[in-house]
């Protein structure tokens, strides 16, 4: 794998994870539990999709030929997607939506913070831009985890169930793909394994306040970074790509 | 228009034309007030305007880009290009004092100072470590206000409420 091939793969990992989570959240627009929260969630979706555009545009430039952010988003099938499995998991009840978001936001924050030091200045610039938005995401999802976890008996039960169900997808966040490893050596990517301790410490503090329990060690599901996805991604893409697949090249 | 005619444009005039381009969501501030336009220069015969996005996913950015090019065309600049620059990332600290005053008059509390480029301490944004400062109500001037939501009607605003005059108001987030 050349450095540019690795860079392309890595940019897809970052961009696809933002894009798929943004698409998941966008599907909830108009369904939020309160008007303010509906607006907040849609704003987070917009941020993530905007950030995905930066990553995918850069990826497309490396790929060359006729690639651009749109062909990458709308004309790749699931096995060509490099997002982590966590973000493609269904919205479920609001406990699931929020716990998925919180796991991702805190990880996202630490990744971007490290990438601000990337030797690839374009990556560093995108990270510095994005982290300003992500700090608001961290604040919001953390607030909700506490509110739901330390809420009613029912909200606590459901949120803990979401934690238990989604925990198995967190291991992948801290395991490098082959492309990432190559880039870590060049100072371009962050070694995600080093982010586990700070991420876990943040979760520990938050969960204590939320009266939730972090699950113990268990087998983790991985594969998203290599294109091995859960069945859910296909449904997300079917909806997201429908228009460009049915009417190729359509613009408005 | 010939090339020699176009190069006669005064850069200061270009800045003034751009100052007449309003933000599509908040028409009382111009793209200059917002600090979106970072540079204006000629590259040979082509006028190059460098802009920086506010929020990554802000839908207004595309409209702003179109409106800037339209304003230049209206003033006779046919050969213009927009460069988008991400670094240094846009901050509300670049907003003009006039822009902040206009926001207040429009019913939006202007942003306080942002954290700038300093590295953010994540413990500050956990629930217990945070301190939300009450903003001044743009309607009645009271400081007796509270935050309703960190996210408002556009990505750049938060929703607050005045506990004296009971009016809700937008707060332009420091960013």
UniProtKB/TrEMBL annotation, chain A:
Q: Which Gene3D superfamilies match?
A: 1.20.1260.10
Q: Which segments of the protein form a coiled coil according to its record?
A: none
Name the Pfam families on file.
Answer: PaaA_PaaC (PF05138)
Among SUPFAM superfamilies, the record links this protein to: Ferritin-like
Q: Which domain of life is it from?
A: Bacteria
List the NCBIfam families hit by this protein, alphabetically: PA_CoA_Oxy3 (TIGR02158)
- This chain's protein is named Phenylacetic acid degradation protein
- The scientific name of the source species is Salinisphaera dokdonensis CL-ES53
Lineage of the native species? Answer: Bacteria, Pseudomonadati, Pseudomonadota, Gammaproteobacteria, Salinisphaerales
Automatic annotation (TrEMBL), chain B:
Domain of life, per lineage: Bacteria
Q: Which InterPro entries match?
A: Fe-S_Maturation_MIP18 (IPR052339), FSCA_dom_sf (IPR034904), MIP18-like (IPR002744), PaaD-like (IPR011883), Zn_ribbon_PaaD (IPR056572)
What the entry lists under SUPFAM superfamilies is as follows: Fe-S cluster assembly (FSCA) domain-like
UniProt domain MIP18 family-like: residue ranges? 13-73
Which residue range or ranges hold the PaaD zinc beta ribbon domain? 135-173
Q: Which NCBIfam families match?
A: PA_CoA_Oxy4
Q: What is this protein called?
A: Subunit of multicomponent oxygenase
The upper taxonomy is: Bacteria, Pseudomonadati, Pseudomonadota, Gammaproteobacteria, Salinisphaerales
């Amino acid at each position: 794998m050349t450095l540019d091939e690795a860079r392309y793969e890595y940019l897809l990992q970052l961009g696809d994870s933002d894009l798929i989570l943004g698409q998941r959240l966008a599907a909830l627009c108009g369904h939020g539990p309160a008007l303010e929260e509906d607006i907040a969630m849609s704003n987070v979706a917009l941020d993530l999709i905007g950030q995905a555009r930066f990553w995918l545009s850069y990826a497309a430039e490396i790929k060359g030929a006729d690639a651009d952010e749109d062909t990458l988003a709308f004309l790749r099938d699931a096995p060509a997607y490099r997002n982590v499995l966590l973000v493609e998991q269904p919205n479920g009840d609001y406990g699931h939506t929020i716990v998925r978001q919180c796991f991702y936001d805190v990880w996202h924050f630490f990744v971007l913070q490290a990438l601000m030091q990337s030797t690839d200045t374009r990556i560093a610039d995108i990270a510095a831009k994005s982290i300003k938005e992500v700090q608001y995401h961290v604040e919001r999802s953390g607030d909700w985890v506490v509110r739901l976890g330390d809420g009613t008996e029912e909200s606590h039960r459901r949120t803990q169930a979401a934690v238990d169900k989604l925990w198995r997808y967190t291991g992948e966040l801290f395991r490098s793909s082959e492309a990432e490893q190559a880039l870590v050596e060049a100072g371009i990517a962050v070694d995600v394994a080093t982010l586990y301790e700070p991420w876990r410490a943040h979760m520990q503090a938050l969960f204590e306040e939320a009266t939730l329990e972090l699950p113990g060690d268990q087998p983790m599901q991985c594969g998203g970074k290599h294109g091995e996805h859960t069945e859910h991604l296909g449904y997300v893409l079917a909806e997201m790509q429908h228009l460009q697949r049915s009417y190729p090249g359509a613009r408005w | 228009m010939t090339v020699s005619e176009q190069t006669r444009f005064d850069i200061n005039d270009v800045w003034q034309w751009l100052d007449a381009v309003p933000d599509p969501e908040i028409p009382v501030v111009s793209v200059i007030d917002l600090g979106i336009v970072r540079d204006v220069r000629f590259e040979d015969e082509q006028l190059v305007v460098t802009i920086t996005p506010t929020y990554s996913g802000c839908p207004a950015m595309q409209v702003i880009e179109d409106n800037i090019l339209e304003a230049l065309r209206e003033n006779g600049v046919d050969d213009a290009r927009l460069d988008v620059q991400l670094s240094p990332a846009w901050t509300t600290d670049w907003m003009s004092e006039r822009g902040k005053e206009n926001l207040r008059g429009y019913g939006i509390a202007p942003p306080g100072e942002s954290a700038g480029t300093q590295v953010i301490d994540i413990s500050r944004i956990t629930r217990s470590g945070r301190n939300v400062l009450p903003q001044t109500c743009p309607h009645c001037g009271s400081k007796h206000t509270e935050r309703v939501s960190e996210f408002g009607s556009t990505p750049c605003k938060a929703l607050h409420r005045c506990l004296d005059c009971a009016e809700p108001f937008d707060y332009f987030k420091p960013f």
